[in-house]
Design brief:
six-stranded mixed beta sheet, globular, alpha/beta
């Protein structure tokens, strides 16, 4: 069983970087949409594969363009934006606020909310301390291992890097970010 991380396409918050980082719920730009459409040729989904989506507009738009409707898809704040490197003193950007469960269920009734029996939805992983993040992330990864197919996680560079480190990679830096509409697969994770 594999886990594939997919970074969303170019977002509206990057059009006038860094001046747009405080716009709320940025979507994909036309460039971002074309990047995701190009990625579609490289990513193959089997019917039993599961897709986890960060609850942000740009990742949802990426998922809509990339994934077939027949796959089981879930929103999870555990794959929402997370700073890298993590520093609790950094103030999170407005563009990294996630949509609420209510907003998501109203707008996207075909996508389920992943419930691991934990109270984490209101708690952002963006500034969560490393120990708490590790506990929750390991529970999410265990859930992924229990699925019958591969898992695809549509998320953000910082979040993906945090998970890659948790899965055993060493000395990652920002130069290891996937970049717009990039993908990275860990075989037999």
């Amino acid at each position: 069983m594999d886990i594939t991380f997919i970074r969303h396409g170019h977002g509206e918050h990057l059009m006038d970087y860094p001046n747009q980082l405080n716009c709320q719920h940025p979507g994909l730009t036309e460039l971002g949409k074309s990047q995701v459409i190009a990625l579609r040729k490289q990513v193959v989904f089997a019917p039993e594969d599961v897709i986890l989506i960060s609850p942000t507009k740009r990742t949802i738009e990426t998922a809509r363009l990339l994934t077939p409707d027949k796959n089981l898809a879930f929103f999870s704040p555990l794959v929402g934006p997370r700073m890298f490197p993590q520093n609790p003193e950094f103030v999170p950007f407005v563009c990294d606020q996630i949509n609420s469960k209510e907003e998501l269920s109203h707008q996207y009734s075909d996508i389920r909310m992943l419930n691991l029996g934990l109270d984490y939805w209101e708690e952002s992983i963006n500034q969560m301390d490393a120990d708490r993040f590790q506990i929750l992330a390991e529970q999410l990864l265990e859930w992924c291992r229990q699925q019958s197919g591969n898992t695809f996680i549509i998320s953000h560079d910082g979040t993906i890097s945090n998970y890659r480190i948790l899965l055993g990679e060493k000395e990652l830096t920002k130069s290891d970010f996937l970049g717009e509409a990039g993908q990275y697969t860990i075989k037999n994770f």
